[in-house]
Structures are given as structure tokens and as C-alpha cells.
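Q: Entry one of two.
A:
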Amino acid sequence: MTQRAFPILFITATRIGDAVLSSGLIRFLADQIPNARFTIVSGPLAAPLFAHVPGLDRVIVMEKGKGKGHWFKLWNQVRHKKWGLVVDLRGSGTALFLRREKRAIWKKSPDILHKVIDAARVLKLEGDPPAPHLYITPEVQALADQLLATRRGEPEGPILAVGPASNWVGKIWPIERFAQTAQQLLGPGGPLEGGRLMILGGPGDERMVEELRMASARGRYIDLTGKVDLLTAYAALKRADLFIGNDSGLMHIAAAAGIPTIGLFGPSDERRYGPWGAWTKAVRGPRSFEQFLAVDPDLSQAIRHMSDLPVTTVVKAAKALLAEVKAAKEAAPIEESAEAPIEATPEDAGLEPDLQPVLEDVAEPEVDTPVLEDAAPSSAHADEGRDPG
């Protein structure tokens, strides 16, 4: 017997990084509710991340307008359907004005929580939170593999991926230090000796990469800056051996790809925004996040805050992480044929047992919570309201 579709309205972040960090909830819901049908609401830069979500009905691109106009426009687009579940990670209160069976609305926590944990709490999930996950098709992976293919007779070798850009100059590590780091890791005696350098970035970042190209021995680099979309970048990163990058959406995409990831931090809080995953490290210089706040309270000044993070610190962290990964793989080699997960059948219950505590209405918003309004950025990432990255 065919199950009735379970429509889910999932309102996610505007910024790429936040959208990636909360993406594990979509996978969780898709796994737990076999008949789920998703309508995903996102900002224009993050929206392409969700193109291949299973059970996707629609991605609504919501661009911020004057006042609360964008929220009323969204409400008008989704008000005609009765939703099985509305998940609102923006804390807007939109769910209160929609016909729905259940709702889960983000509310700001007084605790310092990583964004992955913060997102899991919206669905009242206990234990390990759902890790970030992006969906791609075999065609997307094939395109990425084609872009990474070497010339005839040229050895492949390991791949060091770097993300030298960010959405604010204060979070950008000097480009020459990326070049020096790449030389030490890819050069003679380095842990990725003889490998290739993969450079990633968005449109407009091309001018940054010339020095990085020169850092790769005999032109062994793959420059994808401004040339691929987010999901193709994700697919390409799945083939890399290590990623090093500034705190940015690309850093979170690399971590979601499951590769060893080094995130470079200064005027942003790794307790909330560090790369998530078993093989990730957040690296910072001698100053704490609070010390950056003391000199730049709004985290908005055009100051190169990252200049005190030395190359030696990053190289040391990269070597240590690669050594950890190597030791773990040698101790417990990955099996060639893992047992396939058991898929839910139409005869299964419409809702998996683990989801029962999730689909309960959260408490009504506090009286002082503005309805149909974006929640204010946390001070730990005060630049989150600017251009997603």
C-alpha cells in the first residue's frame, strides 16, 4: 500500500556555512520518514546546495527585502498547503501562521554551542547530532573527477585542497602563507610530497590565486576558482587528501565531504563554527577570540586579523592530522564492501521510532520574540548577516 506523502517545509540559513552545518537534519528526516517530501527555503547563495535532496519538491530562494517583506512573500508561497512538519532554523515564527501538524522552531540558546549541536536541538535530538551531509548525483561526481584527471603520463599523487578566501578580510590568512604551507606539504619530505594543489574559491576570488599557482611544483595545480558550483566543489573535495582554509562556507563543505580539514580561525569562534567531523582541526594564532573582540567589537573593521597565525603552526597541525588519519586507517582499514543499510519499505510505519520525540510542537515563542523576523546574529559570528560564505 502506498504511503501518503509527508510534506516538510525546511527553512534553513542564508549563509552557505550555516546551511551546510544544519544539512544533517535533512538527511536525518529523509532517513526517518521514507515518504518525506521536502520544500526547502534558503538564501540565494546557499540554495544550490539542496538541488539533489531526495524527495525534493521545491527549493524556494528567499532574498532579503525591506523590513519583513521577504517573510510575508514566503508565507504567501507556502500557506496553501497543510504541512506535516515545519522546521524553521531562522526562528522567524512563520510556522505559527501555517497549517501544519508539527513544528520545530529554532530559539537562541544562552549556552555556547556548536552550530551542528544547536541545529540538532531544534528537533530535540539526543546523543550525537546529525553530521553535515550534502547530496550529489553520480553525474556531478563524474564531472568533478573529469576536472581532476591528470594529463597522460602524469602521476596523480595526493591532493592538497586550499580555500584562501572568505567573506570578510578580517578572516583571511595572508595568501603568501598559503603558498608557503603548500610548498612545505607538497615539497620534498612533506607528507603530501609530489602531490597536486587544488585551489577553490568563488567568483571574484581569481585574483588571489596566482601566487598559489606558482607554489605548486612544475605547475601541478588544479585551479577551480570561480569555475565550479558548490556541489561540484564538494564532489572534487571528496577526492582530496587534506583541506586547509579560512573560516568559510567552503571549509564546512570540505569537512562535510569527510576529508581531513584544517580550519584557520582568528576573529571567529571555533566553539560555534569549527569544522565538524572526525578528522578536523581548528587552528588559531596566539590570540583568543575574546582578544579579537576587544579590538574589533563589531567584527567589521577592515583589519587583517589573521596576520599573527604563523605558517609553522598550520604546517604542524596539518602534519599531525595527516598522521592521525594514517594511523587510524592502518589500525582499522576500511572494508571494501560494507553491509548496505536496510531501507524502509512501504509496509513500515510512516514514522520511525527515533523520530517520535521530534515531531512534537515546541513551546510557543517567548512574548518578546519578534514574529516573521530574522533572529539576530550571535556575537560569536557577528558577521553572519553579511554576504554568505
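Q: Entry two of two.
A:
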Amino acid sequence: MTSSNHLSRRSFLSLLASAPLASALPHSLLAARHIPVGLELYSVRNALKQDLMGTVTSVAHLGYQCVEFYAPYYDWTPDYAAQVRTLLDSLRIRCYSTHNSLESFSPDGINKAIELNHALGTHYVVLASPGDNVKTLDGWKRIADTLNSANQSLASHGLHAGYHNHDLEWKSVDNQVPMELLSANTDKSIMLQLDVGTCVAAVADPVRWIESHPGRIRSMHCKDWSPEKGYRVLLGEGVAPWKKLFAAAESVGGLEYYLIEQEGSDYSELETAKRCLATFRSLHP
């Protein structure tokens, strides 16, 4: 991974275009295995603030099969989490994971995270960000230790920890890539949730990453990126090699569910979610 950070953007994009498929398995066989596709609800964050129950209902009616709540869910009461679960059940959609701050992984905060995630029926409590103060290898090692410690507590309650990357994790620190350090120093039961867009933006190779970490990429944020529009580009309109990513994730990565994420676009939040899901279905029939 270190060497990939020295590629020029032009060379890197050419490499993505010409790379072989991650697996010899026909894509038709991969598609035959049902893997749900959901929405990271940060994609509809403004609507969610106005009407959480109504927005989740609208997302389900678009055809999404699961959702991922992000950090503000941690402020809920257990009773409210139970109400949300009742809605999810009535809509026949699932919440397999939540995004969390470091508070959910702290000794004082983990019990609340466990209670809320049990109410929602999730499998993974995902650390969405390492915080603003991680700048050294020792800092990244402390994040790995935090994940391992929390994972032991979560596992005793039928849950597991996860880690969600941004672009920072692909930028070399003292000749070591933080994502490599995290993967090497965390228990293999900890999910490495791949955010494709930030990986590509950092000029790392997401297909190679999946292939070199079998069984750990159990969910993937399907977010695109382009040099011209950044993360505002719609799914399928950027440079990410989606079909190769799907093949690698399903044949090697251990993928359990997909999550579409969009940070913004030229359309409304729900229209964006609708368009991205239609594109996903065309790329992954």
C-alpha cells in the first residue's frame, strides 16, 4: 500500500481502468448470492433531522433493504431506539451497523452503545472516525488498542467492532500506511468497513485492499469520487471500478451488505438516494 501513495492521479486512474477482475468467478454467480443494499443515513441527514421516522420510511419505499444510523443516534433513549426498531420491522428493513464516535468505545460509553445497538438489532458498532488528534503511529496504535478492547466487550454481547476509513488512513505516516497498521494490529473479527470514495481520492487501490484482507470487508460504503466533482459525483459517474469491487468484495472480502453513501449532489437528498440505488442495480443486477 505504501507504494500506491506515490502514484500520480493519472497513472492511478489508468491502473484502475486496466486492472484484472479480482476473481475468476463469473459476476452472474456473484449476483446470485443475495446481499442487501442499504443507505448510510448521513446521505439524507437534513431530512433525517426534520423527520427521522418519515425519512426512514421514504428510504425503505425507494427500495433500500437496510440503513445505517450515524453518530447522533447515540443521543437516543433506549425507548426511542425501540420505537425505531419497531418502524424498521414494519418496513421489513434492517440496521446491521451504526456509526459511532470514540465515546461509544470508551469504558464509560460502551454500555449505552451496546444497549442501543441491541435495540436496533445491529451486528457491528463502527468507529466512524479516530478523532482529530491522531497524527503519529503511536496514535494509530492506540486506536487499534481501543478497537480490540471494545471488541472484547461487544463480543460478549453478540456484537463486534468495526472501523470506517476516510482518506487520512491511506496517507503514509513514517513510511507506514495507517490502514495497514490498523488491520495488522486488530482482531480479525473486527470489520474493516471500506469507504470506496475516500480510498480512491487518496490514490489507494480499493480492489487490491479487499484482495489482501480476505473476510474483513464485511460492508462497503459505495461512494464515488472524481477529480472534477469530488464526492458530489453520483455513484457510477466517478472513477471507482465498481464491478471489480463487487467481484472482489463478494468472492474474497466476506461482504455481508452494501451501503450507498452520498455526501451531496446537484439533486435533493432523496432524489440522489433514488438515482444512486438505480445505478447500483444496473451495475450489480
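A: Comment on entry two: Confidence is low (pLDDT under 50) at residues 1-32. The CA atoms of residues 127 and 163 lie 5 Å apart.
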